[in-house]
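User: Please run a holo structure prediction.
Assistant: Happy to. Please share the sequence and the ligand.
User: Here you go; the ligand is iron/sulfur cluster.
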Amino acid sequence: MRKQNITGTREWACKTFNICLGCPHGCLYCWACSNAVRFGRISPEGWRKQRILCDNLPRAGKGKPTKIMFPSTHDINLENLGFCLGALDKMLNRGHFVLVVSKPNVDCIHAICKRYTKFKEKMLFRFTIGSLDNNILKFWEPNAPSVEERLLSLELAHNMGYKTSISCEPMLDCDVGKVISATLPFVSDSIWIGQMNQAKQRLKLNGAGQEALQKADELLKAQNLDFIKDLYDQYKDNSKIKWKDSIKKMLDLDRPTKPGMDV
Ligand code: SF4
């Protein structure tokens, strides 16, 4: 029997939950946007206008307790914070373990940390930082918080006693070591490293334009097999550094066989 190929969000969680369609951060490489565009649910321009799906809220937390990634196709911001807290309330009270994934707004993270002190063991924050260079972030993730705000959010959650982790996927430059050094002191769990997946296809669907396609091409050429091998050799003995499917595939490393095994 062929082994199941576990990729994307399923590397981290058994289930995902979302309460919005669209995301104002407008990341050019966004898989959720490309997926929604591909299936005709939204236009690339429409993606940046977040629509709160109130009808989803009653379904939050339904089912047997498991690992849930929240959100996976939008982010948490001041506009949808109340609905996100409502969804988190339901998931945590039901006994789920929640992986909270965000390019974090510090006020939102503060509100979440203040509210769920009794659920600290049932939560893990994962903040996305693909580069420490704000110019690079601005190009790929035009409306997302600055690197300073993301680092501040990480420090805040860590200092308030929450489990913390980083997603450096996609790596947006070759200075991955800088992201690791800046975040490691405030990371209790893991730092995930991965490449930009299906770049050409997703950028085209998202209407990202020629400059983005060219930059993605250059980025992936720079992050070639030699680069990835060096990176792996440098960090393979650090138990907090974990490798996403894109890297495991390149280096022929063992891949998870069940969803959520690598949380
Ligand atoms: S923050 Fe996430 S969901 Fe929002 S646009 Fe960026 S990649 Fe997509």
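The radius of gyration is 18 Å.
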